[in-house]
Amino acid sequence: MGEKIKVVVTGVSGRMGQMLVETIAASDRVVLSGALERSGHGWIGRDLGVAMGGAETGVIVSDTAPAVFAKADVVIDFTVPAATIAFAAAAAKAGVAHVIGTTGMTEEEIAQLEGPAQQTVIVRAGNMSLGVNLLVQVTKRVAAALDEDYDIEIVEAHHNRKVDAPSGTALMLGEAAAEGRGVALEDVSDRARDGITGARERGRIGFAAIRGGDIVGEHDVMFAALGERITLRHVASDRSVFARGALKAALWTQGKAPGAYDMLDVLGLAEQ
């Protein structure tokens, strides 16, 4: 087997950060070469393994992206939009690939990734799991097959610490449904209902967000018509599914031309 791919994890103290560290440690194809946290965080300067409550790993948590990226092949990033934009610029300058699982990014923030994508490989997805990306494809096809007699509602549920709504995955599903119907999601999206809203408008795509406990991620796409209802569903019961998907994306980036990609590219589903 060839040399292992060197991976940096950002936001390493978070739930996804720690899950990524564990997933990388269990892999025989990649090695953790660096760990990043925000300036002032209590883990800065500490051995990552010790900070996580285990044995020393030799990886010291840093807040200096350029120095850490210089020794890596790929960065895996599940943080916040502002940090992700900064990491994208640093990764492009260092010539390392950037896998982005950060959610809650606006169209303006996503547009700021276009420059870095001209210099390096960027894989960005609202959800890294195989199952969700298959669900995206199915949603698009079902929406294309059914007319506006079928109301589309997307219901998502996550843990009580999630800060953005609708989730990135819900928006992915909404985009797929809108694309299937040949419309722009921004023109048909219903994000919130409260009070006397009036009857549901034909052709709209509705979103509902549930937050509670430790729900990892549940997404339903409902096509509801008179007399029948079709529901497509994905349930994630363990965050490791996202970490494994991100690792698959990280491996895929090696040898690819600079550009902006998503998980459909990684999974070979983009043209289907």
TrEMBL record:
<dbReference type="GO" id="GO:0051287">
    <property type="term" value="F:NAD binding"/>
</dbReference>
<feature type="active site" description="Proton donor/acceptor">
    <location>
        <position position="158"/>
    </location>
</feature>
<feature type="active site" description="Proton donor">
    <location>
        <position position="162"/>
    </location>
</feature>
<dbReference type="InterPro" id="IPR036291">
    <property type="entry name" value="NAD(P)-bd_dom_sf"/>
</dbReference>
<comment type="subunit">
    <text>Homotetramer.</text>
</comment>
<keyword id="KW-0560">Oxidoreductase</keyword>
<comment type="similarity">
    <text>Belongs to the DapB family.</text>
</comment>
<feature type="binding site">
    <location>
        <position position="37"/>
    </location>
    <ligand>
        <name>NAD(+)</name>
    </ligand>
</feature>
<feature type="domain" description="Dihydrodipicolinate reductase C-terminal">
    <location>
        <begin position="131"/>
        <end position="267"/>
    </location>
</feature>
<protein>
    <recommendedName>
        <fullName>4-hydroxy-tetrahydrodipicolinate reductase</fullName>
        <ecNumber>1.17.1.8</ecNumber>
    </recommendedName>
</protein>
<keyword id="KW-0963">Cytoplasm</keyword>
<feature type="domain" description="Dihydrodipicolinate reductase N-terminal">
    <location>
        <begin position="5"/>
        <end position="128"/>
    </location>
</feature>
<keyword id="KW-0028">Amino-acid biosynthesis</keyword>
<keyword id="KW-0521">NADP</keyword>
<feature type="binding site">
    <location>
        <begin position="11"/>
        <end position="16"/>
    </location>
    <ligand>
        <name>NAD(+)</name>
    </ligand>
</feature>
<dbReference type="GO" id="GO:0008839">
    <property type="term" value="F:4-hydroxy-tetrahydrodipicolinate reductase"/>
</dbReference>
<dbReference type="InterPro" id="IPR000846">
    <property type="entry name" value="DapB_N"/>
</dbReference>
<dbReference type="InterPro" id="IPR022664">
    <property type="entry name" value="DapB_N_CS"/>
</dbReference>
<dbReference type="GO" id="GO:0050661">
    <property type="term" value="F:NADP binding"/>
</dbReference>
<dbReference type="Pfam" id="PF05173">
    <property type="entry name" value="DapB_C"/>
</dbReference>
<keyword id="KW-0220">Diaminopimelate biosynthesis</keyword>
<dbReference type="GO" id="GO:0019877">
    <property type="term" value="P:diaminopimelate biosynthetic process"/>
</dbReference>
<feature type="binding site">
    <location>
        <begin position="125"/>
        <end position="128"/>
    </location>
    <ligand>
        <name>NAD(+)</name>
    </ligand>
</feature>
<feature type="binding site">
    <location>
        <begin position="168"/>
        <end position="169"/>
    </location>
    <ligand>
        <name>(S)-2,3,4,5-tetrahydrodipicolinate</name>
    </ligand>
</feature>
<dbReference type="GO" id="GO:0005829">
    <property type="term" value="C:cytosol"/>
</dbReference>
<keyword id="KW-0457">Lysine biosynthesis</keyword>
<feature type="binding site">
    <location>
        <position position="38"/>
    </location>
    <ligand>
        <name>NADP(+)</name>
    </ligand>
</feature>
<feature type="binding site">
    <location>
        <begin position="101"/>
        <end position="103"/>
    </location>
    <ligand>
        <name>NAD(+)</name>
    </ligand>
</feature>
<dbReference type="Pfam" id="PF01113">
    <property type="entry name" value="DapB_N"/>
</dbReference>
<dbReference type="GO" id="GO:0009089">
    <property type="term" value="P:lysine biosynthetic process via diaminopimelate"/>
</dbReference>
<dbReference type="InterPro" id="IPR023940">
    <property type="entry name" value="DHDPR_bac"/>
</dbReference>
<keyword id="KW-0520">NAD</keyword>
<feature type="binding site">
    <location>
        <position position="159"/>
    </location>
    <ligand>
        <name>(S)-2,3,4,5-tetrahydrodipicolinate</name>
    </ligand>
</feature>
<comment type="pathway">
    <text>Amino-acid biosynthesis; L-lysine biosynthesis via DAP pathway; (S)-tetrahydrodipicolinate from L-aspartate: step 4/4.</text>
</comment>
<comment type="function">
    <text>Catalyzes the conversion of 4-hydroxy-tetrahydrodipicolinate (HTPA) to tetrahydrodipicolinate.</text>
</comment>
<dbReference type="InterPro" id="IPR022663">
    <property type="entry name" value="DapB_C"/>
</dbReference>
<dbReference type="GO" id="GO:0016726">
    <property type="term" value="F:oxidoreductase activity, acting on CH or CH2 groups, NAD or NADP as acceptor"/>
</dbReference>
